[in-house]
Fold this protein.
Amino acid sequence: MLHIYCPHCAEYREEEEFRPKGEAHIARPVAPEAASDEEWGTYLFFRKNPRGLHHELWYHAAGCRKFFNATRDTVSYQILETYKVGQKPSVVAGQSSNKGAAK
Amino acid sequence: MSQQNRLGTGGRIDRSRPLRFTFNGVDYQGFAGDTLASALLANGVDVVNRSFKYSRPRGIVAAGAEEPNAIVQLGASEAAQVPNVRATQQALYGGLVAASTNGWPNVDRDLMGVIGSVGGKFMPPGFYYKTFMAPASLWPKYEKYIRKAAGLGRVPKEADPDIYDHINRHCDVLVIGAGPAGLAAALAAARSGARVILCDEQEEMGGSLLDSRELVDGRPASAWAAAVLAELATLPEVLVLPRTTANGYHDHNFVTLHERRTEHLADLAPSLNGRRQVRARMHRVRAGEVILATGTHERPLVFSNNDVPGNLVAGAVSTYIRRYAVVPGRRLVLSTANDHAYRAALDWHDAGREVVAIVDAREHPEGDLVNEARARNIRIIPGSAVIEAQGKKRVSAVQVARIDIGGFKVAGRVETLACDTIATSGGYSPVVHLAAHTGARPEWRDDILGFVPGKVPGMTPVGGVHGKGALIEALADGAAAGTAAAQRTGFTAPAVELPKVAKVREGKAAALYQVPHVKPAMRAPKQFVDPQNDVTAAGIELATREGFESIEHVKRYTGMGFGTDQGKLGNINGMAIAARCLKQTIPQTGTTVFRPNYTPVTFGAIAGRNCREFFDPRRFTALHAWHVEHGAKFEEVGQWMRPWYFPRGNESMHEAVQRECRAVRESVGILDASTLGKIEIQGKDAREFLNRLYTNAWTKLDVGKCRYGLMCKDDGMVMDDGVTACIAENHFHMTTTTGGAAAVLDWMELWHQTEWPELEVYFNSVTDHWAAMAINGPNARKLLAELTDDIDLSGENFKFMDWRAGTVAGVPARVYRISFTGELSFEINVQANHALHVWQALFDKGEKYGLTPYGTETMHVLRAEKGFIIVGQETDGSMTPEDLGMQWCVGYKKPFSWIGRRALTRPDTKREDRKQLVGLKPLDPQLVLDEGAQIVLEKEIRIPMPMVGHVTSSYFSPTLGHAFALAVVKGGSQRMGQTVYLPMADGRVHAAEVVSPVFYDAEGARQHV
Ligand SMILES: [Zn+2]
């Protein structure tokens, strides 16, 4: 069971309080009607499934009800960072991940 | 009964407390402090089981969790039955009743033995796949027979009267295992003031200290263990959990500990102060640091007939002698590849029994224990091994031969030695199971001939599991790790002064797993690798010859490690054999994955208190008591208990529903609608948010008005619906489906927080705060008029889809003129604690109108007559608003591209042959079609044929006088008047006409009066 640091509550809480919401940073095209069918289909249906670092959207459903992002290693299940919606990850694939204080 | 193998003195048993017990129907006696296994050995019980496949007699092999054979069914009564209990881990108590799990009809005279001795030849690895899988239709028959014969234990047929607990815990340092390394670690960490939990699976803490020959500070090692435990007991931040198995090691140092609180006392939890005690407790521990001190499991050597009762691992022999004062035989042959196992021979010798010989695979054994054996004139046969055991139900002799390990062959003449017990040791496998639960792959170490745990963040292995099995090393390793772990969690740990232990000089161990035989493995008598699953060395050889190279495939092909013991004893030997056959090293062959649970856990402990009414919380409306009192039958809708129908007298469900329907259509009925989700929406951008969330337009909805809204996901598929009212300019009250309430609130938060944080809007669930009572029917207005004097109910001042605030039955209320039945309808919302008062007042005034309570079934019939959908019944996540014929509810012209808008113009959502909502009128007017029935276009049924849709809702309507249904049909809107067919499983084919989904009052006159 994951131990997740909620950046809004500023506390570690048990996984049972959270819900995973899939890949993070999926931006809705600003002008949907101008998007081609292919662009819209990509936005709707295509998601990454990496082995390794993954940026995920999580929801503190049984806590503060806030959404936030997490950078999680899909192999080791280590959570390298959590950060608020609108912020950028500081740990990204291809870079050294030894900043890894699990916050 | 005499305990012929019990020593007169010594051991940690209490001879003043004899205990009677029954095994396979025979009475025996043991002592307090015994395990069931030690008590059986004390009584000379050789055969404790029959083997899984070959039905060979099997005896006790080990003294701990790794025991593969002594698996028993426990329990004196039916309700107390527990399967798959390891006799080596079951404390003896007075009145214990146990039986072998395998062996039908019994272990000594076994029917399957006859079949096994013949059938064994027919049962090579892969036998089940090859023989029983074709034809597949016969498998259930085979399986029943095989299971009965194999007898893997059975569950009780009566309910378990015991109670179980779960406890969440947090600690700085969790120490798993209370042997020398674990005790030293716990002491070091605990002295820092850190919160420490120390658990151990055994009856008594101390691990190898309890049967060690070594002295600690000049005293028996067990005395040091006792002193450490006494100190730990005085420290307030320390929790010591004996009889507690760490059975699962999960992510981020979350460990589940299974504590057996009463299973050493009786088979059902005894009462304490008049209350039944908690039988077992699952501690869910989140640990800052985990110290893994799980020790090692000794590997037996693999040689012919190594399963005949009287074969034990060497360390178990020492444990039974020193801890339980039981010598499990008279004449011992020890076959070893290391020094440490010499303890078994020395202990046996100390007990005054004969050591026939020590057979050592090494050419020049050298070390302190070897010298001690020499000093006692025990015969040591170097460069040799036991290659075969003789005997049926007990070892009678062994064949010993000089062996060439590198060449894997017998290198000299074979000598036969008479004996009744064989102790073997091929080395010591670190107990890596828990670390492996986290996904960390074990790593091979040549210096210790074993796998050690892979790296797990926040976990430190110590002692035997860390390759530091010698007592002096284990103590130092544990203490250092305990200090370091406490420091990492923020405590200052004073150095622990280590007790004085003499260093034992040991020679290098030899790498021996399978012992060569004079015949090749395929023709030699069976050499067992995994005794619980009857996997032999020849079987593994065959698997590699048949092309299985991955150890995971070898496992599945042979069944190795698939028993309840997860192959604790045999897996490394199996890997070594596969490696030899594949001409590669053990690490190249790989290790296998271990999964929770480490040892079997009862379902009771897993469930804890989360059973029966606590399994899933139930939600009740404020009116529930009234419904119960009035005989309602209930339906579970999500977690809600909703009245389904209210039968009168001996009415059937059908009769009750017909009556309730007529009451609504002819006079007035009332529904408890409180379970609908309700969400408060406030903020200056609330209206704009609704515009983006719903498919239809909200810009012009005035205060005092309501509107039906449809919600899509961004793929254009309908996800929820409901009525939302404008309470004030910046304030809306939304209703959702009963089941969708939580998901809709999450959905709104998702869009607000991640896409449109610039909108000033706030949401809150008010589902439980408001009770909702819907009065429906031509007399609804007259009834409500008797209970309110401040709301103008006239048709011109309180129109359909208006809402008004006022007073109903003397309490503040919001009244919504909305209708889910097509009748004149008012939904009265009051604060939930006023609900019963208002409901009662309605019935007081409603008697003259025949006010009739109705449930969800009548609600369904009435709404279906009107063609009103229920999200989740008419929809399944693949229906667009247009598929449902609800174009009227889609605001294509709204300026903002609302959720789902863009997807509605995708080619797939524009297809004309999508499944569309229609009505079905069965040609037989009395026939209620099955919901879910498949729809085809042709009367002549052939297989395969295209399915064009299915029935979503189906009822008999007393108002229409015939059965009717809603359905989704490909291109359905173009098929009005066509006949479609519904083939049933029993061969009948029903026919129905495609009609409009609105069966009643299509122009909507009744709700507008
Ligand atoms: Zn939070």
